[in-house]
Amino acid sequence: MGRVYQRGRTWWIQYYRHGQLFRESARSPLKSAATTLLKVREGDIARGHAPSLRAERTTFDELAALYLDDYRLNNRRSLDTAAAHVVNLTKTFRGLLACELGTVRIHEHIARRRADGRATATINRELTALKRMFSLGARAQPPLVASIPYIPLLKGERVRKGFFEEEDYRTLMAVVLPHVRVAVAIAFWTGLRQGEILGLGWDQVDLEHGTIRLEPGTTKNNEGREAPLIPEVHGLLVEWRRMTREAYPHCAWVCHFRGKRITQFRRAWTEGTQKAGLAGRLFHDLRRSAVRNMVQAGIPDVVAMRMSGHKTRSVFDRYAIVSARDLDVARTKLTALAQDRATVRSLLGTVGPEAPVITPASTIDSPPADRYTATP
Questions:
Q1: What's the whole-number mean pLDDT along residues 268-296?
Q2: How far is the C-alpha of 287 from the C-alpha of 24, rounded, in Å?
Q3: Residue 314 counted as domain residue
Q4: What is the pTM of this model?
Q5: Distance, CA of 273 to CA of 173 (rounded, Å)
Q6: Rounded Cα gap, residues 2 and 24, in angstroms
Q7: Among residues 54, 60, 61, which one has the least CA distance to residue 144?
């Protein structure tokens, strides 16, 4: 049995669970509030647990730790990205109780990230991570949160549409560092993801047959696949392997810097794109460009999807981007088609009808009245 009592102007409750005494403030000067809270606690105990009490003490930091632990336990390759989301969310929510993370706090985070100049897609990924934290907390035993707050994603253009034209690619290749040049060439002509490229070992590159092999479990969708190498990329890799073996004979990684594997090259990429006059471009734009290259080369969609690793048709179609040059080519081809048809009609003597001429109404004479008189 429990009881309510008063300390100063605030009412408290007292109850037992498994023989252990619990005291809790109702945070109210009203006795009725304390009575209601006591009934809630007694109901929790009757069901065999006290989730509400635990949930009210859960902090954001505990949820963030649970979120990262989930990534580690499942051996997810995007752990670094998840950790970055936690860092940015912690700047807003550090020390807060999970039950305090409502709409106002979430809007504060959005406003802060907007002020930092972050894109809508970046903010949405952080909000998605926050949703995941609450979902994991709700599934824990005993539950770490009593309910999951409403966390709406921002509306706006979330689909990136950047890509590299052939000239952009050539310009970039001429200015980036050698270890970045290798990754750029592979991405532009095969469509491999950045993480897949940076994780390539020399044992996955078959220079004799001109292919790159990704083992099952090492890709985003955990499915293995192969990508062919055009002569340009093949020659680049042959020379890069020769230089690697001469300078760093024990290096097993394709993308390395002075014999050590690299996991990211943000700084080198930023400097390279700025030198090439392509500031703001993303490495992932090379993947989109590769998909477009495949489509323009006439490779069947099912084969292109297998090479690029796309599981859904909608994502693949989104990457098959139409550029201004594509439109110019389409215009040229349609114009040539129209001219060819006109030539054929001229040779056959079947010139099509002229377009109708629209005469302004003010210039049309009124017809004679007897024109509309019925004849007997």
A1: 89
A2: 57
A3: yes
A4: 0.55
A5: 10
A6: 11
A7: 54
